[in-house]
Design a protein that fits this description.
Length: 281
C-alpha cells in the first residue's frame, strides 16, 4: 500500500530559537492508517503538523531541511491551495474554523474558496453532512451547537475537501468523555468506510489507542519511540518521555504480571472488568 505521508529527515528551527524544534524526524504513513503522535508539551508536535500541512515553510520562516511529501508531492514545492485539497486539519478548538452564519455554509466554505462548481459543491456538502450525521443541523447557527456538534461540523468541512490525509490536533481536549468516545468511534468509522488516513496528536490516549495502528512518541523534537500502542504502552520507557499511560493499561500491565489477565491486547475498562469478573467466578 502506498504511503500517503512521507517525512524524511525533517529538521526545523524557528528564527532566533537556540535549538531545532524538530530534529531529524522521519515517518512514513501508509494509506488508511491511524497514527497517534504523543509527547510532552513543547516536544515539537505542533511544529511537525505545520510542516505537514504546509504552514512551514510557506507561512513560517526558519531553518528548514529534509522533505515532507503528501501523496507523493513535496510540501515545499506545492502551493497552499494544492495542499488544502490533500491535507485536512481539525483544530483543537473547532471555533477556530467555524464562523459562517449556518452549518451548511461552514461546510461549504473551503469549497467556495477553491471555486468548486456549485453542483459539485452541493453534492460534496450533502455527502459530508451525511457522513457526520449533521444534516438536521444544516440551517442552524454554529453558536447554537454543543462542542461535540461543532467538532462534527468542522470535520465535515474538512472531509468536503476530500483530502488524502486528515490531521486532528488534540480533538478530544474540549469534549466530555461520552462525546470524546463518539468522536473516536467516528474516526474509526471514516477510516473503515472511506479509507481516510489520520494523524492524531493527543494527550488522552485511553480512547485513541484502541483504534490506532501506531503510536509515535516525540521528545525534544525527535522521534524516540514508534510501534503498536500495545508495544509502546506496555514497555518500560513511555512514561519517562512524558506519555500518560492510561490507568486501565497500567492496571492491566500489573495484573498480567500475576497472570490474571493477558497482555495480548489493550483492553477497554469494560473488557478488563469483564475479564476480571470471569476470573473471579
Amino acid at each position: 500500500m502506498a504511503d500517503i505521508l512521507e517525512i524524511e529527515d525533517l529538521s526545523f528551527r524557528y528564527p532566533d530559537s537556540p535549538r531545532q524544534t524538530v530534529a531529524e524526524f522521519s515517518l512514513n504513513v501508509p494509506e488508511g492508517e491511524i497514527v497517534v503522535l504523543a509527547g510532552p508539551s513543547g516536544c515539537g508536535k505542533s511544529t511537525l503538523l505545520r510542516a505537514v500541512n504546509g504552514l512551514i515553510p510557506h507561512m513560517y520562516s526558519g531553518e528548514y531541511s529534509g522533505h515532507v511529501r503528501v501523496g507523493g508531492a513535496d510540501v515545499k514545492e506545492s502551493t497552499m491551495r494544492d495542499l488544502a485539497q490533500k491535507v485536512g486539519f481539525l483544530f483543537q478548538n473547532p471555533e477556530n474554523q467555524i464562523f459562517m452564519f449556518t452549518v451548511e455554509r461552514d461546510v461549504a466554505f473551503g469549497l467556495e474558496n477553491l471555486g468548486v462548481p456549485r453542483p459539485e459543491m452541493r453534492a460534496r456538502v450533502d455527502e459530508a453532512m451525511r457522513l457526520l450525521d449533521i444534516g438536521a443541523l444544516a440551517q442552524r447557527a454554529p453558536y447554537e451547537l454543543s462542542d461535540g456538534q461543532k467538532q462534527r461540523v468542522a470535520l465535515a468541512g474538512v472531509l468536503a475537501m476530500k483530502p488524502k490525509l486528515v490531521i486532528l490536533d488534540e480533538p478530544t481536549s474540549l469534549l466530555d468523555p461520552k462525546t470524546a468516545a463518539e468522536l473516536v468511534d467516528l474516526v474509526a468509522s471514516l477510516r473503515k468506510n472511506l479509507g481516510t488516513t489520520f494523524v492524531v496528536v493527543e494527550h488522552r490516549l485511553d480512547l485513541l489507542v484502541k483504534v490506532a495502528d501506531r503510536l509515535v512518541v516525540m521528545n525534544e523534537g525527535r522521534k524516540v519511540m514508534e510501534g503498536s500502542p500495545k508495544k509502546i504502552l506496555f514497555g518500560e520507557n513511555a512514561e519517562s518521555y512524558g506519555v500518560t499511560v492510561p490507568s486501565v493499561t497500567r492496571l492491566q500491565k500489573m495484573l498480567s504480571v500475576d497472570g490474571l489477565v493477558s497482555q495480548d491486547e489493550l483492553m477497554a475498562p469494560a473488557r478488563l472488568a469483564e475479564a476480571l469478573g470471569g476470573r473471579g467466578k
